Each structure stands twice: as structure tokens, then as C-alpha cells.
Amino acid sequence: MYFCYVLKNLLKHINSVSDLRQLSPSELPQLAKELRQFIIEIVATKEGHLGASLGVVELTIALHYVFNTPDDLLIWDVGHQAYGHKILTGRKAEFHTNRQHKGISGFPKRDESVFDAFGTGHSSTSISAALGMAIASQLKGENRQHIAVIGDASIASGMAFEGLNHAGVTTANLLVILNDNAIGIDPSVGALKQYLTNVKKGTQKQDNIFESLNFDYSGPIDGHDMEAIITELERLKTIEGPKFLHIITTKGKGLKQAETDQVKYHAPGKFDATTGDLISKNNKNLPPKYQDVFGLTLVELAKKNQSIVGITPAMPTGSSLKYMMEVLPDRAFDVGIAEQHAVTMAAGMATQGLIPFCNIYSTFLQRAYDQIIHDVALQSLPVIFCIDRAGLVGEDGATHHGVFDLAYLRCIPNLIIVAPRNEKELRNIMYSAQKGLAQPIAIRYPRGRGLTPNWKSDFEAIEIGTGVQLEQGENLAILSVGAISNTVSNAINGLNCAHYDMRFIKPLDEPLLHSIFKTFSKIITIEDGVIRGGFGSAVLEFAAMHHYKNDVIVKGIPDTFIDQGSVDTLFESLELDIDSLQKSIKANL
Questions:
Q1: Which among 91, 99, 289, 367 is annotated as catalytic?
Q2: Mean pLDDT within 147-162
Q3: Residue 16 above 50 pLDDT?
Q4: Across-strand partners of 524?
Q5: 110 within 8 A of 561, measured Cβ to Cβ
Q6: Is the dihedral of CA 365, 371, 373, 379 positive or negative?
Q7: 34 catalytically annotated
Q8: Does residue 1 register a pLDDT over 50?
Q9: Counting C-beta atoms within 10 Å of the first and last residue's C-beta, which end of the chain has fewer, N or C?
Q10: Is 251 tagged catalytic?
Q11: How big is the chain by its Cα radius of gyration, in Å?
Q12: What pLDDT score was predicted for residue 457?
């Protein structure tokens, strides 16, 4: 029987959901096998988010088979798991361009397909968005289905609970599907995770939490049993009001290594599609990743300073807080997908004399903006924000680029903002920050590796608000902040221009700026954040305040959302790479 199915090569003939719906139910398990293999073969060479998409293959097929998408609206929370969805909805032929420059996005994107009902990339948005759509359909008198697929890590977020709380008092035609695999990027944490585990084991004695919120609850069912899923989805189509389906899946289903090591195979890089083995990169003698410099330095500092604690919202591996969790588990906290909670928890700790290092990706820190202002900065609490993945992050695209942090943080009173240019500077500012600051500080650094093999040197204190001159020169001064300073150093090689690493965006080194403005008639600022409101804007404000008339050119990220592509490709497209900067600087000499 299996041999006959293989000969059919069903996926080859599926170019739209209308093609999918021509299949018989008995053919769908074979399609699932082929869809899994297709995803594996493409991601093996092109890279991407593997495990999540493999885990929902049966669910993806069933949803498009049972519901009348795109008229029925389907939202994938986060979007890590949407590869099968994209392949079945007309993007199979271009799936090999996934996450590449000018290719299709790695996440659902409204302007890419009518089947992408809502753009995702950050977690826990699906229930609120689907509820908004469902209420809109009611108001317009439209009869359609609204489905939100959310994972057990994402549903623990506050925003997801806000959506559930509201949905439970409506009559909206909303179906929430909980894809329960006990893992997000790292294993899920918290009391809700334990509750769901007890439900799966049949040991949960308390009332069903989702029924208590007025949802029609069903499950848990096997998320890899195609017949069971389709049968239940057909039933749920006939029920009015808010419904909740709990399915159990295995992240990485269909690839042994991905099932066994779900953290590593969330986004494994290149691997052998046949064996599943990772293709190792030659990382010998390379500098460490910035995240590892943070993680290892934090352990080093925390061993000497008993007041130091570490906090991350669901990213212990990605942030490398895992090192502290291994060595000092009582003082390192993964709080789940809860950025707002992470920040205010850090504030609470700071009131009691602890020194919290709160590590959050730049793009996710946006979710805790009110807490930064109200709970930390307003009270001058010395929380140390370590902002990972600042600047352009590459293939994850617009939802993940950390280009707004300088602009959205710079307007907050009491907040120090610093961007170290290399690993040594990162270590030294972390060391300096934990030595009795009376206000919060934000330390931003990029994704990937630095340039300093001998990064682990003795600590040296950095005076807050001081910049340094890296190169002497005449006529033209270049002011940069952060890791892009290294690109600038390469770009000006052999050119007669001065280069200053200002380091601090707030407070600016005003004595140094006065000296620069009095010495050079033309100044170029360079940053890897948005131009509007960023570092260059701060320099322009300084010039205006002190009535300087120098010619100031501001270079950085333009006022548009930047799509996906390799970091090098994106910098080239924005003319922030070495060659482009060199041409621009030469033109201004």
C-alpha cells in the first residue's frame, strides 16, 4: 500500500487549496509524508525554522481541507510553523526562496498572500487578531470561520490571556487551536505548562481552565491522527461561539534528530536531508557570538557579586542565559513569553537591592515599552537591560530586525544607552554597570560573532557618557556607535578622516562633541538603527542647541521596514557596507 501511495506523488499536483480538496481523506496521510519531506529537503539547504512546521503538518492539511480558506480566516501565532501552510497555498514553487532577499517571508505576511490573514512574527497575537476579525464578521453580517493556532508557550503570554478573557464573553465565531508540544524555542515553563501536562496525563483534578473562560473545550487529541483531526474540525464547524481544541503534537515530527533535540532543530541551519545530521561549520579559532560573551561574562560577574540575577523571557538558549542557569540556577530566571512581566519583575528585584540583568531581544523589548518607562525609568531603578539582536538580524526579516531601540529608548528620562563596538567593550560595560549605578542602563549588541579572538581580558571600568577617538584625520569626522564602528574602520582605511566611537547614545559625550564640532566642518554619523530619532538625530539636536552650523550627514536605516535577507546583503542594499561607506566618505572628503 505504501508503495502505491509513493507512486502517486500527490504533492507534485497540489498547487492550491482547491487541488488539496480534490483528494480523498484516505490520501491525506500520504500527502502529509510528502509535505514533511519537501519541507525537510528545502530547509536542509536553505535553512529556516524546521521543527515547528514539521510538527503541524497534519493540522495544516486538515485546516485547509475542512475550512474554506481564504474566506475562512486562519492565523498562525508567531508563524514559525507556517511553512506547510505556505506550500499548500500557492507558494510551493517559490518556497526555495524562503527567508532570502527578495524571496518569500519566513513568516505569514498579508501582502504576500490572501491566505495570510494576519502578519505574525511575534508571539501571542493570534487570539486577539482572530477575535477582532470574528467580531467584524458579526457586525457585517458575514458567515465565516475564524481560526487561531497558538502554541503552549505562546498561550502563556499575557496578551493571549487578554484575548481569551474577552472572547469568553462574546458570541463570536472563534476557534482557538492549542498546538501543545511542550516547547517553544526552548522548553515551555510555568504553571500553565504544568497544567497542560496534567491534562495530557489525565491527572488534572481542577476545573478545565478554558471551559471556565466559557469556551467549548474539546481534546486533547493526537495532532498527528489525520482522521481524528478532520472529524473534530468538521464537528467544531457546526458549533457557534468561542471554541477551543487542544491537540498534542511532536515538534520536529518525521525527522528523528529534530524530535530528539527539539531546541537545536528549531532552526538548525544546514543539515543532511537524508540523515538529519547537522552540517558542522568550521568555527575553530573564531571569536564567540556576542550572546555567548554576554552569557559567560554574566556568570563570571555573578560568581563574584551575589546580588546579580539574570532574567530572560523564554530565550535562555538564544540569549545564552543558559550558562548562568546551569551554574547558578537559583539566580537565573526564564519567565516564559512575558516581556512585560520580565521587566517589572526586574524592577521589583532592583527595589530590594538585587542587580538584575534583564536580557531581551531588541525586537521583543518593544513589547515592554510601558514597563521600561513607568516601572523602571520613572523610579530610577538600576535594571541592566542587555538588548540582544540589535540592528539588522538577517533572514527573519521585518518582524525581527532590532533597528528601533535607539529611537524608542532615547526619549526616556533617566535611562543610559550604550552600544559597545566589540566583545571587550561589552564585557567592560557589563562590569561597569553592576558597580553601583543609580539608574537603569540599556546595553545593545548585535546578533552573530564579533571580531576579537582574545576578548576575555581583564575587566576595565568604562566611564558613563564617554566616547573614544579611534582614528586621527583632517577635514571630516565620522561618529559611529556600536558594532558598525568596525565596518567604518575598514571603510576609512587609507582615508584622511577622523573616526570617533561615541559608545553612549545617552548621555552623549558633550565635551568630545564640542571638540569635534569646533575642529571639523563636516561630520558624518553612522548607526545600524533607524535614522529618525536615533543617534544621528541626537547629534543634530546637540548641534542645534549649541548653534553649530557644521554640515552633518546622518546615515543609518531609512524610514521603511526592511525585509529579509542575509545581514551582508541587507547592509549592501542600504549602502552601509564597507564599499558603499567608503565611496560615500570619499565623496565627502
A1: 367
A2: 94
A3: yes
A4: 478, 553
A5: no
A6: negative
A7: no
A8: no
A9: N
A10: yes
A11: 26
A12: 87
Tell me the whole-structure pTM to 2 decimals: 0.93
Interatomic CA distance for residues 200 and 196, integer angstroms: 6
* Cα-Cα-Cα-Cα dihedral sign, residues 358, 363, 364, 366: positive
Q: Work out the angle at residue 321's Cα, subtended by the Cα atoms of residues 327 and 50, and round it to the nearest 5 degrees.
A: 120
Q: How far is the C-alpha of 94 from the C-alpha of 495, rounded, in Å?
A: 44
The separation between CA 223 and the C-alpha centre of its own chain, rounded to angstroms, equals 26
Q: Which residues pair with 309 in a beta bridge?
A: 356
The C-alpha cell 491527572 sits at 203
339 is annotated as an active-site residue:
yes
Count the Cβ atoms, other than its own, within 10 Å of residue 390. 28
Under CATH, what is the fold of the domain 2-260? Answer: Rossmann fold (3.40.50)
Please report which helix (H) or strand (E) contains residue 426, including its range. helix 423-433
Quote the CA–CA distance of 187 and 527 in Å, as a whole number.
35
> pLDDT tens-digit profile of 303-316?
999 999 999 999 99
Distance of CA 158 to the CA centre of its chain: 17
CB 349 within 8 A of CB 309: yes
CATH topology of domain 290-444: Rossmann fold (3.40.50)
C-alpha cell at 107: 513568516
From-to residues of CATH 3.40.50.920 in the chain: 469-588
Which residues touch 181 (CB under 8 Å, ≥6 apart)?
Answer: 55, 151, 152, 248, 249, 250, 251, 262
Q: Which of 243, 251, 424, 503 is catalytic?
A: 251
Regarding beta strands 468-471 and 498-501, do their DSSP bridges make them parallel or antiparallel, or are they unpaired? antiparallel
When pLDDT is averaged across residues 449-473 and rounded to a whole number, the result is 92
- Which cell numbers hold the place of 504? 553612549
Report the half-sphere exposure of 536 (CA within 13 A, side-chain side).
19
Give me the residue label for grid cell 512585560: 340
* Residue tagged active-site, from 232, 339, 423, 425: 339
The residues that bridge with 243 in the sheet, in sequence order, are 175, 216
Longest dimension (CA), the chain: 83
Give yes or no for residue 499 having a pLDDT over 60: yes
Cell of residue 563, nine digits: 525585509
Residue span(s) of the chain under CATH 3.40.50.970 come to: 2-260, 290-444
Q: 194 to each of 42, 59, 184, 512, how far by Cα in Å? A: 35, 24, 15, 55
The end-to-end CA distance of the chain, in Å, is 74
